[in-house]
Amino acid sequence: MKSLVLLLCLAQLWRCHSAPPGLGLVYRELNCDDPETEEAAQVAMDYVNAHLLQGYKHILNQIDKVKVWPRRPTGELFELELDTLETICHVLDPTPVANCTVRQLTEHAVEGDCDFRLLKLDGQFAVLFANCDSSPDSAEDVRKVCPDCPLLAPLNDTRVVHAVEAALAAFNAQSNGSYYQIVEVSRAQLAPLPPSTYVEFAVAATDCVAKEVTDPAKCNLLAEKQYGFCKATLTEKFGGEDVAVTCTVFQTQPVVPQPQPDGNNVAVPPLAVDPAAPQPAPANLPAAVRVVGPLVAAAPRRHLLHRAHYDLPGAFSGVASVESASGEALHPVKPPVVVGLAPTGPAGPVVRPCPGRIRHFKI
């Protein structure tokens, strides 16, 4: 009899530790608009924008789902599903995302869908896993809101490529300082009447002087990277075309020597710069350029692909290779270790409402 009781106890203990999620394990469901849920969601969004390498910053639109699992020996694991919206701030723009304008439906908005796992330990959240996807609003929905609004165009469309090249040439022609090269074509739209192409693109300063360039291929990006972001419209007209371009150049990103194991210091750009710190004014900027602050990220040059927007999976830096503030590797984690099975008996409290409120608009 004692052996039988011991066997039953061992079997019950095994069930408590090995049963997968979704089979009655203990977790708590918060209200999607609960302050604790919103705090976790904000940490997740900060993580996304800190690790974007291309395209535009995203902002939280709606919290779809939240589950909180107990974690042994301490802490809790938050599972979140979030809806985001693209803003008009490029990832190179140091403007805080809270101050960035959400791209409207009439501008062909882009929505993101993200899954997160965050560890809450000693009152602090750390991202353990992040997976995001994004897609533009459908052409049909845009047409319902604005029948004549231009739609997103593929970034490698010949009209888009020509408009970017013409706009860059016009920008460099008015520069009294560095020659700028294309870093990324970020967005494009085509309008039928009058026939025109609207483009947005990122640029970077080179070691060449704009007025003296004869072979752009021989120009190299500056060691202390200086990026800019341009918006331009090329309008076709009888016998020619008009190009209107405006560019914002951001403060120079300094190169900071980093100690290496062999004792040799290698200069790499920092991940962040204190916006409150005084910054020296860059020299020889074109007169029409507005300096808005220090640069907080660096984007690699990208080949143009047949797509109309920079989707979050393609713009997101490698989650599996980056470490969070907690020091845990950012890769899909194993199911959380739980503390027991859900008790049988009377039904518990009614699950509180999810999804949460819509902060901007639904796509």
Automatic annotation (TrEMBL):
An example molecular function term from Gene Ontology annotations: cysteine-type endopeptidase inhibitor activity
PROSITE patterns: CYSTATIN_FETUIN_A (PS51529), FETUIN_1 (PS01254), FETUIN_2 (PS01255)
InterPro entries (alphabetical): Cystatin_dom, Cystatin_Fetuin_A, Cystatin_sf, Kininogen_Fetuin_HRG, Prot_inh_fetuin_CS
Major localization listed first in the record, in broad terms: secreted
Gene3D superfamilies documented for this protein: 3.10.450.10
Keyword flag Repeat: yes
Keyword terms of this UniProt record: Disulfide bond, Glycoprotein, Phosphoprotein, Repeat, Secreted, Signal
Record-level GO cellular component terms: blood microparticle; extracellular matrix
Signal peptide: 1-18
Subcellular location(s) per record: Secreted
Highest rank taxon of the organism: Eukaryota
Residues in Cystatin fetuin-A-type domain copies: 27-133, 144-255
Pfam families in UniProt: Cystatin
Name used for this protein in its record: Alpha-2-HS-glycoprotein
